[in-house]
Amino acid sequence: MLKFLFKGLIRDRSRSLFPILTVAIGVTLSVFLYSYLNGFMSDMIKSSAHYNTGHVRIMSQAYAQESNQNPNDLALIGIDTLIQNIQKTYPEMIWTPRIKLGGLIDIPDANGETRIQGPVSGMAIDLFSESSPEKRLLNIKEAIVSGELPKNHNEILIADDFAKRLKVAPGDTATLLSSTMYGSMAMTNIIIAGTVRFGIAALDRGAIMADISDIQIALDMDDTAGEILGFFPDDNFYEEKAYQITDSFNKKYKNPEDQFSPIMGALPDEAGLKDYMAIMDVAAYFIVGIFLLAMAIVLWNAGLMGSLRRYGEMGVRLAVGEEKGHIYKTLILESIMIGIIGSFVGTVIGLIPAYLMQIYGLDLSFLFENSTMMISGVLHAQVTPTTMFIGFIPGILATVFGTAIAGIGIYKRETAQLFKELEV
Amino acid sequence: MNNSHLIKTEGLYKKYPMGPTTLVALDNVNLNFKKGEFAGLVGPSGSGKTTLLNILGSLDSPTEGSAEVLGEKVENLEHKEAAKLRNNHIGFIFQTFNLLPVYTVYENVEFPLLLQNISESERRLMVMDALEWVGLSDRADSRPTQLSGGQSQRVAIARAIVKKPALVLADEPTANLDAQNSHNIMETMVKLNKDLETTFIFATHDEKVMKYLRRKVYLDDGKIVKDEVIKHELSKE
User: Fold this and answer.
1) Residue A406: per-residue pLDDT
2) For residue B155, what are the domain limits?
3) What's the pTM value of the predicted model, to 2 decimals?
4) What value does the CA radius of gyration of chain A take, rounded to a whole number of Å?
5) Is the pLDDT of residue B1 over 70?
6) Which of A11, A320, A414 sits opposite B86 (nearest CB)?
7) Chain A partners of B173 at a C-beta cutoff of 8 Å?
8) Which residue ranges make up each domain of chain A?
């Protein structure tokens, strides 16, 4: 019987082509949007991890409470020993210290007088060590717009947009004004080695990047850093593993009595991403649900039209002795076949733009110019194993649901009435 | 089941409510049909012949009275039981052929057998046998749209008799056919009636059919007005 039904579906285009196309279109959109949401979330996680929190982050308890304000007076002291210890205990992670700072950048004129000033946020990272992962994580080489990577101490990188506003170029000098970790004023002369485009509006508006050893000297932070970040080597975030590491670390190092003792947090908590991730999960299933409903309504109508067209067939089938229940079941079976074929086609088609967007991205940075979020202006999709089957949920459910409702019309119709309509 | 009577109706009524009044489609119909009969329900449009045919085919049930078909009381049958009766013992032939256009001739004839869990090899034998009876074994792979009206009706006959039913009900089977095709179709059915002892009951007002009938039951306004056995028609075969 299955073979018989399948032949009918293949040969009768009006029975199969329109429903399959409807399902395929809906599934294509579902798959693409699901991939896009995944990519959006993944980009957000990566941006937050790279520029803000790492996959896990160690701070002093006091610093952690006010970490948004970069309170370097509460920074971790004795980081060299701590990093050595955690490298031994958690060799599966890459560890790197960072200092975030705020201040003022002063650009002098030819006479050494202030030509222009601007508020600046700074990130001090390990730029010079061979083993440092920072250049790779932050994609610095590729982000350079003009000039080059700092090769000497007191050389910095500056956001390209910011440099244009300040009218500075590689080779120019500037003075960074900030405060030491003990609260006194810090002034350091710096040389602009290059300009970079971070691709994140919040940083492109006014950020600099310097080597951590220079900033440690400038801010009186010897053997001290605001944060130590840990990354998984393949740059993917593994939530369960991250929480295992944080639990283990906090059991060993966290001392509730000492506010300067270290505490480790995982990315979802640190970046406030946990809620976003939950919302995105709901949003993904919401999208699938919307498409399910829309497709079900379309397919319900298609089913009704098909049923009207097939009254004659139903009458013949009843006449030769097929039960109404059996006819109804075969209609559902047909809809499952349509759902599977349409979902397969839709998934394949949906994966094509999703893959392209995963590889090449879609540059919408002009829309994020005023954003303060740590999110890339180039949007990417992300194809995951779930993407391969997520479209089958609305695809099959919608066809079955639509057909089930449409089929009730036939099921409830009097046998003799169906039979009479054969003669029309 | 009483062997002498394949079909027996007693005090059969079919009434349809029409607003404040009631339309009586069948009015106290009492009839018997024996195995192997080649009979017709004859009468003008609206006389009740199709309604009676539907009840005899267990597609409809009477309002009052009893219709016993192959030992089963139609009025007592559940949907499933009625379907089983049709599937196992009754074949239908329609005025408009009603072949399934997306399936081949072979597949149209095969369809009733798919519902009976018969093996593929046995189905093939039965279908080819049926097509041979109606002289269309060379058109097994054709689609209904590639056939003439006469050929289409032959396929419908093959579909009706493929499961070798005890009873075939034919509603105006020649209404859409020309004289020559009508003659051929009726000859085919006469032959099947003779060879397989299948009982044929027609609903018709077509002279082309009536001349082949061995019994004519005349209906008018739902009542039997005449029940005539024509013995000389037998010699014609």
Assistant:
1) 79
2) 7-236
3) 0.71
4) 31
5) no
6) A320
7) none
8) 2-47+275-421, 98-223
